[in-house]
Every structure is written in structure tokens, then in C-alpha cells.
Amino acid sequence: MDKTLILAQYDRDLREHAVPDGPGARVERVGEVVRQLADAHGWNGVLWSGLDEADADAAIQEQIAAFTALGHDFEWKLHSHDRPADLGSRLTAAGFRAEPAETLMVGEIDRLDLDARLPEGVRLTEVVDEAGVDLFVEAHEKAFGTDGTRMRRRLLDRLAADPDALVAVVALAGTETVSAARMELVPGTPFAGLWGGGTAEPWRGRGLYRALVAHRARIAAARGCRYLQVDASPMSRPILERLGFLALSVTTPYLYETKGS
Predict the structure, then answer these.
(1) How many Å apart are CA 18 and CA 39, to the nearest integer?
(2) CA-CA distance, 215 to 219, in Å (whole number)?
(3) pLDDT given at position 17
């Protein structure tokens, strides 16, 4: 797999020519910035930019003004190969706060090691209705210790608007939720994105993360996707590397809190 070519295709398909990630969102290109505008529970932020030293600061201020007018906090999703090279420093100077960095990883499905088994007594169930969303959110909250209210609303909206573009899976031990993950397919591209893979602490180290990746990979392949894309945490990166994923870049979310939020 040619990393340079795949990174260029990723930038083109998923960033520069991005499509909205939900029914309440729209994607706009303003100059050399591509951004998504959504409602209060959707994702608001900058997906791609083609800036240089001369126009970066003005473009940053333009985005702050646009999202502040909406009253939404927003995220500038910066990649380490973006330009100018000091864009992160410029965002910080403008009032953004850098969140923990993750590694952009891509795997070609046909070349991945998908030999994975669930722990004994664990089964997977796919989310198809509101009851399934509730199970998913419960598992997510156990894994990450965060409030899943906003995620619940987004999942319900996605299922209602385009159920074929979302695959959400919950791992159950009996009736206990122990892990959950989702996959978002991007129409018109060879990519599917893996998101939110998390396991309750007592169940970590038993192969659940790997099994959920393999399960989603098989579904993606059956639906004609060629690549899986992941923003990997330091915990998940080694697992993905063993499966055959390659690191292409580093992505850092820069958050801006508006006064209206």
C-alpha cells in the first residue's frame, strides 16, 4: 500500500470533498477552508484547509466568527501534514485548546489479519432501533466514563435518516454490555471509518477490540469498501498495527469554545 497515495486520497475524499455526517449537517467550502455546520448535538468544525502563511490567520478568524454567530463550540481537525507547518501554534494563539492527539491509520481490508474470536460467553448484536442505541450508549459510557446523551441523539438521527451508512455493534455478556463500536460508510468513496471502539475496564485485554474491528471489516468488505480508516488512541494503535493498519499522519482536535455555548 502506497502511503503517500492513500493519504492524498483520504484528504481528497474524506476532507476536501467531505459529505455531511448526519441529517442535520451541511458542508461548506469557503475559500481554502472546508467546514461542517450542524445543530447543537452534531459535529461542528473545520475538516480541511489549504492555507499558507499569508492567509492562515485571517481564515482562522473567519471560522471563529462564523461558528460564534451560530453559538456552537467547534473543532479544527488538524493533521500533522497540514500547512502551514505552524498552524497548530496559530490556532492556540487564536484561543483554541489542543486535545490529545491520535494517529490516523488506514488498512486495506484484503490485507488485514481478521482472525479474531470473541471471549467465551460474549455475543455481538447490531444496533437497529432505539433499544439498541440505549445499549450502545450504556456500553460507551462504561468504557469512556463520559455522558452519552449527545451520542444517543446523533445515533438515532443517523439510523432514521440513513441506516445503511451506519453499523453500530454492542458486545454483550449475558445481558451485561461490555463493549461497543461503530462504523460509518462514506458513499462514493472506498473508505469506511471505525469509531468509538471502547471496552469496559474489567473486560479489557480479552480480544474484544480486535474482534469488533474484524466484525466491522467483514461488513465493510461485503459492502464494497476497500479501506478502513481509524483515528487511533495510543492504546489502540499497537493492536491495529498488528492487524495490518499503517500510520499515515497524526490528528489533533483543536477546540474553540464560543460564548454562546
Answers:
(1) 17
(2) 7
(3) 97
CATH domain 113-243 topology:
Aminopeptidase (3.40.630)
* Short-list 148, 152, 129, 150, CA closest to 140: 148
Round to whole Å and give the CA distance between 190 and 212.
20
Q: Are strands 191-199 and 227-232 parallel, antiparallel or unpaired?
A: parallel
For the chain, the straight-line distance linking the first and the last C-alpha, in angstroms and rounded, comes to: 43
- pTM of the full structure: 0.94
- The answer to whether the beta carbons of residues 169 and 124 sit under 8 Å apart is yes
**Cα angle: 246, vertex 251, 255; to 5 degrees:** 160
The tens digit of pLDDT for each residue in 124-147 reads 999 999 999 999 999 999 999 999
Residues with Cβ within 8 Å of 79's Cβ and at least 6 positions away in sequence, in order, are 11, 104, 249, 250, 251, 252
pLDDT for 77 beyond 90? yes
CA distances from 238 to 211, 221, 244 (A): 15, 23, 10
Which triple of cell numbers denotes residue 40?
447543537
Domain 3-103+251-256: assigned CATH number: 3.40.630
In the chain, CATH 3.40.630.30 sits at: 113-243
Give the cell for residue 152.
444517543
d(CA 217, CA 122): 19
pLDDT score at 96: 98
Residue 50: CB atoms within 10 A of its CB come to 15
* Residue from 41, 82, 25 nearest 59 by CA: 82
